[in-house]
Structure formats: C-alpha cells, structure tokens
Amino acid sequence: MRDLVIIGGGPAGMSAAIAARESGIQDILILERDGQLGGILQQCIHNGFGLHMFGEELTGPEYAWKYEKKVNELGIEYKLNTMVLDITEDKVITATNSNDGVFQIKAKAIILAMGCRERSKGALNIAGTRPAGIYSAGTAQKYVNTFGYLPGKNVVILGSGDIGLIMARRMTLEGSKVHAVCEIMSYSGGLARNIEQCLNDFNIPLRLEHTVVEIHGKDRLEGVTIAKVDQNRKPILDTREYIPCDTLLLSVGLIPENELSKNANIKLSNITNGAVVDQDRQTSVGGIFACGNVLHVHDLVDFVSKEAEIAGKAAAEYIKSGKKQSFVIPIKTDGKIRYTVPQIITEAKDVTVYFRVSDVYKNAKIIITDGDKAILSKSKAKLAPGEMEKIMLKTEQIKNVKELHFSLEV
Amino acid sequence: MYDIAIIGAGIIGGMTARALSKYNLKICILERENDVAMGATKANSAIVHAGFDAKEGSLKARLNVQGSKMMPTICKELGVKYKNNGSLVIGFDNEDRDTLNELLKRGIKNGVEGLRIIGKQELKQIEPNLSNDVLCALYAPTGAIICPYDLTIAAIGNAMDNGAELKRNFAVESIDETSNGYTIKSLNDSVEARFVINCAGIYSDKIAKLIGDNSFDVHARRGEYILLDKECGDMVAHTIFRTPTKMGKGILVSPTVDGNLLLGPTSVDIIEKENKATTQDGINEVIKKAKENLSALPLAKTITSFCGLRAVGSIGDFIINSPKKHFINAAGIESPGLSASPAIAEYIVELLSKQGLKLVENQNYNPIRTSSHTFFEASIEEKNQMIKKNSAYGRIVCRCEGITEGEIIDAIHRNPGARDLDGIKRRTRAQMGRCQGGFCGVYITEILSRELEISFEKVTKFGGQSVINVAKTKGGTPQ
Fold first, then answer.
1. Angle at the Cα of B337 from the Cα atoms of B218 and A218, rounded to 5 degrees
2. Hey, what domains does chain B have and what are their CATH numbers?
3. I need a labelling partner for A363 at 20 to 30 A (CA). Which of A2, A296, B12, B257 fits?
4. pLDDT of B246 over the 90 cut
C-alpha cells in the first residue's frame, strides 16, 4: 500500500507531487512512461514557458528542469520507462517496466496526470491517398527537436493550434518552406502571441476558413488540395487550390488521454473529454484526482502547474483525513460558455472557476447566477475559444446556493 | 532453380506457399512490394463467409464452403485470431425477405450449415443496436471474422520457416519458357523455376499475358472503408450484411477480430490498376448506408478511413486453371477469396500434382507458428516470464494497443521480417490504435533504424520513396 501514486511525470505530475510533499505526504511514487521526467516539455525547445510561474521566459526543458530539480531535492520517488496498464476503482494500479516486470500497487490516493494526445489524420477522413509525409505537429516536433531529423522541405499545416504554429516557425528556421497554415474556423485556436511570433514574423500565410480536401502522392506526399469552407464548414468546390508539398502537419486538436480513467469507472465530460471534477480536482471516484491536460487542454504549462498544485494539496488532505464530499453544487453552462473546470463544487470555500467559450465574442458579459438571482457578473472586451478564462467565487457567494449557472450575454 | 515460383505474396500466394511447404520442394515467392499482403489482402472486409452467396456449382461456392471449414484449424496452427461471430443479412421489406429466402435455399444447396431466417423480435434481442426499420434477417452461424493480413503474414512466415524463400520488390517484367520450366525476370533480378503459380491479384491478367494467355482480364474494384475505435467494437456482435442487390453485397457493419468496428465497402469499378485514394463521395456513402443499418453511429470515434482494391475477373468465377504446361493461374480471386483461400491452395496443389509435380512429404515440416500478439493478452505471470527472458518486453512502445519493444523487434527479425513502419503496424498493431502512430511512430522509426542498421532517412512507411525524414536538421542529430 502506497499513500500517493501519480500517473505521469510531466509538468502536472511533478507539480502535484511537490505540492503533496509540501503538504506533508512522504510516501509518493510517480510513474512515468518516458525515459525522463518532463513529458512533452522536453521536445518544446521554444521559449515562452514560465512567465506566470517564474516571471521569466523559459524553454520547455528549462521549465521542466526547475520541477525535476525540486522533485529530486525533495527525494520524491519516481519510476521511468514505466507504463501503467490499468487502474481500478479501488485504486489498484497495474504497471510494467523492464526492471520490475508487471507489478501492482494499491494506493490511498491517485493523481491522474497522463496529459493528452493529438487528434490524428485518420479521424478527419480527408479524401485521397495515404502517402508518407503526413504527421501530427507534435510528432514532427519530436523528429526535429529530439532526434535531429527533418520530416520534409515543403510544408502545409492544417489547423492553427499552438503546436502547429510553433512548428510553422520551427520548420522555417530549419530551412523548410511553410506554404500555408489552413484553419477551418474563422479564427485561430492558438494563442495571439503565437500567431504574431510564429506566422506573421515569418510571413507565413494563415488561411482562415480553409481546409485540406484532398491528399495527393503515391509513396511520399506530392501535394494537397485546399479549399475555402462555407458557414457550415463544407468546402466550396470552385475555391479549390492545389499546393505542391512533401509534408502535411496536422494541428487539429488535443484529446485528453483518459483510457485508464475509463477502466476506473471515472465519470468523464463529453465536452472536455476529461474527468468531471470538483474544486479539489477530485473525480467521481473518491481519492482519484486529475490535473493538467488529462483533465482539460490548457493554453499554458504555467496553468497546468497551478492546477496540479490544487490536486496535490487536495490529495494530501484526502490521505490525511479521508474526507468525503459533503454536498454537490453543479455548475451549469449555457453553450456559449463551453465548459467549466471544476464542473461541481463540494465545499464552501473560495473557488476559482476556469472556463472556455465556444466562439469569439466581443463586448460580452459573463453572468453567474444561482439559477434565479445573479451572484456575479463581469464584462470582457474579447473572449476567444483559444484563451482560457477564470473567475473567482467567494465562500459567501456560494455557501447557500444549490446550483450555479454560467452564461454569456453578447 | 526452384521447383515452384509463386508470383504474388497475398493471401492466395501465401496459403499456396504454405500448402506446398509441406513437401520437399524449393519454393520462391515473388512480391513486387516491400512487404507481403500489400494488395487486395491488405484492405477488405476481413470476413470468412458462410458460403450462401455464390451460385451453386461454381468454384466460388465449392471452395468457399470448403475453405471456411478449414479456416479454424489453420488459424489455430498459425496463431491467428479467428472469431466465429456468425453473420446476419438484414432485410428492410418484403422484397428483401424474398431475396433472403432465395439466399437461404442457395446456401443449403451449397452445403452451408445452420442457416435460418429470423424475425424482428429475435433480431432485436441479439443485436439491439440495429435500426428499428430492419424487418428480418438470414442468420448464418458459421460466418466468422479474421485478420486477412495477419493470416497472410503468418502463412508466409510459416512457409519460410519450412524453407520457402521470399523476394521482395520483385516486379515481374517477363516470363520465358525454358527447356525445363520458366525464367522470370524483374528489372534487376531473375529466377528460374520448374512450375509457376500466378497469384498476382489485380495484375494476374498481365502476368498471364506474359506467357500468351489472353483468356481473361482482371480489373480493380474500389472499396472504401471507415474504421472506428475499439470503444465501438461491441456495437454489433455479428457481421451485418445488407440484402444483396445487382450492385453487390452492399455496405456491411462488422466487429473486427481486434475489437474495432468496420464499415464499408463501397463498390466502384475502375479502369486503371491502382487507385487507392479515398473520396469524399465514397466516405459519405459508407456513412449514409451504415447509418441506415444502425440506430446510432458514433462517427466521432473514427480512427481511419481507407480504400482497398478487389481483383475482379472477367468470367464471373474464380479463374484457377493451367493455360500452359507447368503454369497455373489463380486469378480473379474476388470475394469470397479470403474464405476460400485454404481450399484454393489445396486445389492448386492438386493441379500441380496432376501435371507431374512429385509431392514428397517434408519430414521436418512444422505447421505451428506462435501468435504475434503475445504481450497484451498474456496473464501477469506470463508477462513477467517474457520480461525476465527479454527486458524489451517490459517497454511499451505503442500505448494505445499496448505493444512492447520486444514484439516490434520480433516482427523485424521473424519471417517474413517487417522492413517498414506499415509492416510493423500490420504485424504488431503498433500505430494502429486511436493515435495512429502519433506517439510511437517516432520510436518505431528509431527501432527499425537500429535493428535494420539503416539511417533514419532510409526508414520508410511502406518501401519505395515513402521516407519519413528527408534530412538531418541543421544542428545534426544528438547522441
């Protein structure tokens, strides 16, 4: 029996471990599938990490190293190259690695910090052939930054998620020509600063309301046909345009990796694809917590670390006191507000609620009610799906409510 | 000098090679691609048909029924998954019901066991996710599912273990008769053999024409498919066919042996031999028809779509004959070719024997090949034994399908060894899960590069020019 087992040694897992240790938990084990701690940060060699947490711009590996050093200083145990195969509802973890073989651990508490994966090309059903030369942006990033190989010279990028934008710049710096970044929506899902620094600074065209409709090439990709889309996101045939290229990178969304959570019967949200959690990031299974991109996809790693602190502290509290959720206030959204995290509140205390909107809204008013009367409202000049918002609720604002409604007035 | 040259390493070539490797014969399999199972074998509906479809008295009917009966034993010997899930041909109206009754009669004449028509109530009980509009169905308990490329890889691997040879990237350019057989040439290689078997799929008419046999043509019939995540694999238990029309068997919905859900295929004849591009129309048609079959279709769980080519012969039946001494055609092997393949192989052996091939049993013949899908399905104790023996089994490379480095290395070194990323995919299922190689493709490239002792830039997706990386980065590669 272990006190706390953390699945994943990326930024979420490390930050949660440190917070739990600092809250007095000695017996902590991190299980990491890769050969080093840090997760995806290790391939993110660009800067821009840490502005919120450390007030300085760090690269991904530098940011990871700050946490890894702390994990080592605090003597937190971790196992690398270790893959978790299964988690059960009663918190038995089955994992495997080359040294220990397959082993099982029963834990008092578990923190899920497995991160997310990129949506693949297969899921898009793009017509055409199936040549080599098509990669998700993160896969290309790994080839370039970790292994030192260049996937191709003439590039089209589909989707303007942050990794796609970062790779547009990275491939350009490696001497490849990025011909276009196509985005099916009328706005980019990436951060404004990445549009500026990764596309505009390098004169890479962002083709909004455009998508790839056909893939060409037998062995290796030879070109793609792109087209403008109408209001229903259907391609308009006579806007078709052929772009010769040997590489297509996809940055079309990230999906929290919750296959293990399903094994443990954890209730998942079909909007975030992550667990439904309370203010402590506790899931529907008592003693199992979730944080980072496995819970919902974050814009910045700084926010991941912050969220993981909440989960780490709460897991420590759970281990020490075994406290149960006493009541449940559900948080409902109106659709314009796509989702909130947490989705429920189980304790009357100050809670910061994070949320995302489903479209670009200008001069909008966020209104929070108890289903009847207003509790709080806040005006915003601009809201976009790519930027996570947050709002703080005070203890006295929520202690007597039965439910909370988040809506947007535009 | 080989006794036998088999042209084409698909399911027919593979099964034939295995059937012949039981005897003391020097066998060579010639394959134009970088791997086996690259043609019609690679992308089809993966069904072992019960045998009620083909017209009584045809080769198709006889070899289908015979082949599907042989299939369970062969799969067991080769360590290949075989699932006898049964099939249902669903009907929506009385016209369909009449057709199903005809199919039932034909099936009984063909010798198919256990066929019966079932009504809506029973149907809803055994398949609750079927559309409410379904009226009745023909139930065929002997229908089964299988993985066609897994079976082919295993059959060829087993034949190779028993002495057969495989030549890849050998595209036949000419076949010349010699005093005691044939000389078969590719652009840069040549092979001599006493007997030649033409199992060249969509190219089998071209191969036949090389020796002057112009008696048939083969054309490609495109079939587009959609594959859904394993989460959807139990939406139906049986293979669900539509009542056939003049246009063919229609769009089916079937679980796969690996637990995914398969939808398709379309059916479009083409003039050119190769066109495996998917189309928006085709994908839309699959979606539309599959939606008619089921009450709900979770398309958001799509993990890939693809197009396969069936080799359709010009005479309406399998073309298995000997147009010239010591030369056998096995052509036009369209559906139910996979189901019939073990029987086709036996039939070819029979034809060879009639032509004077001496069949002396190979005393060292071993019909057994162990499964390639070892780790994921093993018990914890078995897993630990594997890891203890070889620590590479402790490292999971493909997280979606739970495939270890040990299995990937094994796939590279075991007959017929994987030479490219897609080869690893078909042998191990690594890269075949929901992330489609997003995470593990990089590591598999690294393993291929190391085990085959080739540089990163030489690793391909499926041979030829299908390279994954084109150059080193400016900073070069780290140690």
1. 55
2. 82-145+220-308 (3.30.9.10), 380-458 (1.10.10)
3. A296
4. no
Judged by CB atoms closer than 8 Å, whether chains meet at A127 and B461 is answered as no
Q: Is the pLDDT of residue B215 over 70?
A: yes
pTM given for the model = 0.95
**pLDDT beyond 90 at B315:** yes
**Tokens 């505009």 sit at which residue?**
A200
Percent of chain B with pLDDT over 90: 91
Contact list in B for residue A123 (CB cut-off 8 A) is: 302-304, 436
> Please, what is the average pLDDT of chain A?
95
- Inter-chain touch A132–B461, beta carbons under 8 Å: yes
Going from N- to C-terminal start, the domains of chain A cover 1-118+253-325, 120-252, 327-410
| Distance of residue A141 Cα from the nearest chain B Cα, in angstroms | 10
Query: Model ipTM?
Result: 0.94
Tell me how far apart the alpha carbons of residues B431 and B425 are, in angstroms, rounded to a whole number.
Answer: 6
**Which run of H or E residues covers position A5?**
strand A2-7
CATH number belonging to the domain at A120-252, selected among 3.40.50.2300, 2.60.40.1180, 1.10.357.10, 3.50.50.60? 3.50.50.60
Which residues of chain B lie closer than 8 angstroms to A214, CB-CB? 277
In the CATH scheme, what is the homologous superfamily, with its name and number, of domain A1-118+253-325?
FAD/NAD(P)-binding domain (3.50.50.60)
Chain B residues within an 8 Å CB radius of A118: 435, 438
Interchain contact A15–B (C-beta under 8 A) = no
Q: Is A17 helix (H, G, I), strand (E, B) or coil?
A: helix
DSSP-H helix ranges across A187-296: 192-194, 259-263
Q: How far apart are CA A48 and CA A63, in angstroms?
A: 10
Yes or no, beta carbons of A127 and B283 under 8 Å apart: yes
Closest residue on chain B to A218 (Cα) = B466
